[in-house]
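SUBJECT: A protein chain and its fold
Encoding: whole-number codes for local backbone shapes
RECORD BEGINS BELOW THIS LINE
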Amino acid sequence: MKQILLITDGCSNVGISPTTAAAQARAEGITVNVIGVVDQGELGLLGAEEIRDIARAGGGMSRIATSQQLSQTIQMMTRRTVSQTVQQAVSRELHSILGSGDVTELPPAQRSEVVRVIDDLAETGSLRVALLVDASASMKPKMAAVRVAISDLLLSLRARSGQSELAVFHFPGHHSTDPEVEMDSGWTANLANLDRMFYKLNMKGTTPTGPALLKVVQYVAEKPAYSSDDEDGMLRDYVV
């Protein structure tokens, strides 16, 4: 199960549309889920609209949360998206066997068994989540809440009985070799201290959500253009 979890306040302002990038992720079999921490007023409305569009194009879910709701929202989103991913996979299998992927068409006993399998797989199946965090200047007042939410997310993933792996990125990047996105951690199942990296982020710059998302898609899809040996943990240029 592969998914990208994007945390942003919306209103990207550099490069390709994040909706286009999310559609590319979906074409690669990667779900894009988005949690928005938006401002009040017209800017917040525009940000919320973009957040919904990204999730829709990426085949995922979106939630708008205040800073106070963020921790609860990120855990709930992760649980629901894992269950949804499993359910979609089971539905595809049912369709290939029965000609229909609708669980409700099964007899009650079989329906209960399918639901049990979905619940079990959601807890025990292998999960990979690429966390992409908006670290642009507009997110600076919200980063304390983001740090707490990420700590709780790590606890939630560690509590699963199945293997959970996380890769972490933020944007914009703060190295001249890649101003769009920076890798903080490649795939790892050692989730104990990943939240500490967010205390050293320098919050500044523009919001290249689309370009950053495309490069994370490239990484999750394991495209050959990506090299895990890139100096300083950076991603190489990605040309669309």
Q: What stands out?
A: Strands lie at 2-8, 31-36, 62-64, 127-134, 164-171, 182-188. The domain at 2-233 is CATH 3.40.50.410 (Rossmann fold). Residues 70-98 form the longest helix (29 residues). Confidence is low (pLDDT under 50) at residues 226-240.
